[in-house]
Input
Amino acid sequence: MPGAGGTDDVSDADGNEIGPGGGANIDATDAPPITVLDASRPVDAAPDTGCPTPTACALRAALVHRYMFDGTGATATDSVGTAHGTIINTTLTATGSLVLAGGVTDQYVDLPNHIVNQLTNATFEVWLTWSGGGNWQRIFDFGNSDSTTENVQGVGSTTLHMTPLADGAHVLRFAFKRADQMVAQETDLEATMPLASGVVVHVAGVVDDANNMMYLYRDGVAQGSKAFTDSLSLLNDINNWLGRSQYASDPELGGALHEFRIYNAALSAAQIQASFAAGQNPAYLAK
Output
């Protein structure tokens, strides 16, 4: 996938310098263009005020949902959109992270329905600390089970999920399954090792429907890619969960979620690396 942008200072249409550093203003016609990540969400020809680079501006423009787990209580606030989540069986404690006990505690975040299947290209980005434990925990799982009741586990019907430790290969895994597929037929993309435990890790899963590909990243480094011939529109995403699986037999995620983001674009490898390097709560996303 192509990278986006550079790091030079640019100016807006009025000749006002934007970005770090000083120096004379430059003509807006000389400003480097920003890669349009998704045709359905065009990006301005020059960075907005507060964006240090075109890449940062492109990331901000494509971001549609962001959860930082600030404050207290049982609401996971979407600071970009209005898709606020409900925290189940635990609460925020003003630490900037959501701690989940894992196992059979049924602690997780329930995000609103249909925030995923309306996307064409998408990137799902998470900072977390995993506590280790059993196979098939879910960092996230969007879709539905075979239960006819919303918010009830069973056997996965449609699912887009990421697990820190898959059974068999025992590796970090990002996968998609249609309703008419068996588990063995789903599109799965696996890293070479499980997610590290006890430390903050950045992971990202990319669905590039326009180019029929899926990608998996850990700490800004590509873990692999795989052909993807399906569509996110095939998800019946009435169970959009952080920390919980569509499968009743799978344990909940044990650890802490620090930040979760959804972009309506297939971020490039360079953009993923830039986002990882900027870390949680970068200045260009500050409200």
Summary: The radius of gyration is 19 Å.
